[in-house]
Structures are given as C-alpha cells and as structure tokens.
C-alpha cells in the first residue's frame, strides 16, 4: 500500500523558505499503514505529518545501525582471522 504527500504546493510559497515539498510514494505493509492511519485520525493529523514526526523521533536510533559496508568489513575480518 502506498501513501503520498498530496500537498498541492509543489514548492514552498516563499523563496526564502527551506521547506521543499515534493511528492514521494512510500510503501508500507498493510497492517502498518492501518496503524499509521489510526494514529493520524487520533491526532487529527495527516499521514505525512505522522511519518515525518516518526522519522524525527527515530533518526538518532536509526543512525546507530551499522551500514552494509560495516557488516561486510566485519565479515571479511572474521574470515581473515
């Protein structure tokens, strides 16, 4: 299932604004999308707002995850040892 930011403003109204609004499709498992929709209704917010807030809250933790390169380097070191 996909959700997209359907904001009619393709770009920010003022040139000085750093808010760049682009339409982007994101795909979520059906159950997860339903949970997001329920939270959006509960908070009286858009799906886009919910996903943006979730990212802001989770990004520090996500940055702690190892990259694919880190995992490959670890595997190479284990094989070479």
Describe this structure in words.
There is one protein chain. With 81 residues, the protein is mainly α. The protein has one domain. Helix 1 crosses helix 2. The longest helix is centred in the C-terminal third of the chain and has 17 residues, at 47-63. It is elongated and about 55 Å long. It has a two-stranded antiparallel sheet with strand order 1-2. It has helices at residues 30-43, 47-63, 68-80; strands at 2-4, 25-27. The model is unreliable at 5-15 (pLDDT under 50).
Short description:
With 81 residues, the protein is mainly α.
Which key features would you list for this structure?
two-stranded antiparallel sheet; 81 residues; mainly alpha; 2 strands
Outline the secondary-structure elements.
Elements lengths: L1 E3 L20 E3 L2 H14 L3 H17 L4 H13 L1
Antiparallel strand pairs: 1-2
Helix pairs in contact: 1-2
DSSP helix fraction = 40-55%
Low-pLDDT runs: 5-15
Strand content: 5-15%
> How does the major sheet shape up?
2 strands, antiparallel
Overall structural class, as computed from helix and strand content, comes to mainly alpha
First-residue to last-residue Cα separation = 45 Å
Give the helices and strands as they follow along the chain.
EEHHH
Radius of gyration: 18 Å
DSSP, total strands: 2
Mean pLDDT: 81
Number of domains: 1
> Counting H and I runs of at least 4 residues, what is the number of helices?
3
Biggest sheet strand order reads 1-2
Assign an overall shape.
Answer: elongated
